[in-house]
Design a protein that fits this description.
Blueprint (H helix, E strand, L loop, with lengths): L10 E5 L9 H6 L9 E5 L2 H9 L4 E2 L3 H9 L29 H14 L2
Parallel strand pairs: 1-2, 1-3
Length: 118
């Protein structure tokens, strides 16, 4: 794939989600200035079903690294191009500065901070 616009020649497996932090095809394609009038969406209400449809060669699905890396490594899916974007939402880890964390809570905090750097 030379440009994300090239993806528009294939069915795009779209998750119909009300979650504002879920990036759908419209948002993703707009950031690359693609002509959305050419898009052919196949809509799903369940991400697992959309992933299975992609595995069954029914179209192309957007995927977060944490959700599709294993499928790519096992050859069930493959990545089309090197087009990536940041997730629209952020996560924050907070705790009460006036109350010390337990040992296990401290380990969990350290682990979450470490995976957040990846």
């Amino acid at each position: 794939m030379q440009h994300p616009q090239d993806l528009l020649q294939f069915p795009l497996l779209q998750l119909d989600s009300v979650d504002p932090f879920w990036t759908g095809w419209e948002v993703w394609l707009r950031q690359w200035n693609c002509d959305l009038r050419r898009a052919n969406y196949r809509r799903f209400n369940n991400y697992v079903v959309a992933l299975q449809a992609a595995e069954d060669n029914q179209g192309i699905v957007l995927g977060w690294d944490s959700l599709v890396t294993g499928l790519i490594q096992r050859g069930k899916l493959f990545q089309l191009g090197e087009f990536e974007s940041d997730a629209p939402g952020s996560f924050y880890l907070t705790w009460d500065a006036n109350r010390p964390l337990s040992e296990s809570a401290g380990r969990l905090r350290d682990w979450l901070v470490e995976i957040g750097k990846q």
